[in-house]
Amino acid sequence: MSEPRKLYVRSFGCQMNVYDAQRMTDTLAQEGYVETDSPDDADLVILNTCHIREKAGEKVYSELGRLRKAQEEAGRRQMVAVAGCVAQAEGAEILKRARSVDLVVGPQSYHKLPELIAAAERRGGNRPAGIVETEFPVEDKFDFLPPPTRAAIARRGPTAFVTVQEGCDKFCTFCVVPYTRGAEVSRPLPKILDEVSRLADGGVREVTLIGQNVNAYHGLDAAGRTANLTELVRAIAEVPGIARVRYTTSHPRDMDDELIAAHREIPALMPYLHLPVQSGSNRILAAMNRRHDRELFLDIVARVRAARPDIAFSSDFIVGFPGESDADFADTMELVEKVGFASSFSFKYSSRPGTPAAGMGEQVPEAVKSERIHALQALLDRQKAAFDAACRGRRFDILIEKPGRFPGQLIGRSPYLQSVVVEGPQEAIGTLAEVEVREVSTKSLSGDIRGGEFFMRNPARESRFIGQSEKLEA
Ligand code: SAH
Ligand code: SF4
Ligand code: F3S
């Protein structure tokens, strides 16, 4: 038998790229490719790219340069494919800038990878020109992408992303996503349920439903009527084995009353909501075409908090959007003060070719953007530190995901996505443990197991592990 071919996939950007990378790996596993975590010994390298900001978009070219050099030094040839949002946005331009690329494939064509790779192979080693596939095909790729094997599910651990909605029809004036991912499409509910059941059979306990506008989800159910995100979450929470459900990224405009109530009614829905606001200034929100104002955002925050008092929020912010004045920026700072975020992502506005904002006058100077982002991030960091500090002494369930750095250590996640380090047995991975938080640092929390699924199933081991970290410290 010939050696299996080795595949290395590197993803940049958002969680959808992480999910897509797994689906590409599953597709190529059927063609005999096995995953490797080193690009150097791979026969096929896929760079799964992100186009959201200029810096993200440029990363692929430095990576391609590095790959080419390594290939030249080793005197060997690898096949190199560029996938993801840069592939969609730049297409054949990539082949002009980086001659080592064999294949450029956009996000809606991943089901065609085997035939595209075969075609690129037929072109041979001298790379007269690579192959470019960036059409938005009529067929639904999800109908053709094979599911992961049980072994692949187990390797990926007890948490999983599942794409339920892809693309965006909102057209915020700064954003490339509507062009790179295409129009908003929702997957049918029964197909998502099948996928989640299969993941749960393989040991997955927590699913994060992902979409560029996940709360605009409107997929067909088994009876052929349209189901919304609340119905989908409800159905998934019922799947045996699934203990936790999350969804991201939602848009404030699509946070309806039903979904807000779901945060009160569905215990498996985690009390943590990522809700991007971008700016606290109504003038800037209008120029961004966000279709919501600060009042709507604050109103949603209040209503979600009323439904689920222990909920925490995270958000995305852009500073230095064209025309943003000191007063506009002050509005953003004030909104942040008002809400209090547990975690956040903030970015300097990056002008993206082809978007309406790129052509707007009054671009904000780099120095001003830098000043504003520092002030904003300092405030957001203080809020995160305060939120984490308030967790000290609290008890909550963590989902144990993997071994820690040191023997006997395990790492899990709190309901608020914080990393939590505990002492415990390897067999507890994939279970919910009740943990009392003892220490808080900037990167993670640490705590002591007080109970939980593993210990209920193995009462004999309870006394050995519960409270063990305290003993170790003493
Ligand atoms: N669909 C989500 C997120 C899309 S991209 C939403 O509707 O909010 C993730 C984040 O990147 C955005 O929320 C925004 O804060 C940031 N972003 C997008 N385009 C950007 C640009 N041109 N410059 C700087 N940040 C940008
Ligand atoms: Fe981009 Fe706006 Fe769509 Fe989010 S809602 S993906 S920011 S266009
Ligand atoms: Fe980037 Fe595309 Fe995601 S641009 S953020 S990889 S949708």
Give an overview in words.
The protein is built from 17 helices and 21 strands. The chain has 3 domains: 129 residues, Rossmann fold, CATH 3.40.50.12160; 250 residues, pyruvate-formate lyase- activating enzyme (Alpha-Beta Horseshoe), CATH 3.80.30; 79 residues, OB fold (Dihydrolipoamide Acetyltransferase, E2P) (Beta Barrel). The protein has a 6-stranded parallel sheet with strand order 2-1-3-4-5-6, with helices on both faces. It is of the alpha/beta class and 474 residues long. Helix content is 37%, strand content 22%.
Low-confidence stretches: 467-474
Strand content: 15-25%
> Could you name the CATH homologous superfamily of the largest domain?
tm_1862 like domain
Strand order of the largest sheet: 2-1-3-4-5-6
> Number of folding domains?
3
Can you summarize the main beta sheet? Answer: 6 strands, parallel
What gap, in angstroms, lies between the N and C termini? 56 Å
Radius of gyration: 23 Å
The beta-strand count equals: 21
Q: Per CATH, what is the topology of the largest domain?
A: pyruvate-formate lyase- activating enzyme
Q: Given the helix and strand composition, which structural class is it?
A: alpha/beta
Small molecules bound in the structure, each named once: S-adenosyl-L-homocysteine, iron/sulfur cluster, FE3-S4 cluster
Mean pLDDT: 93
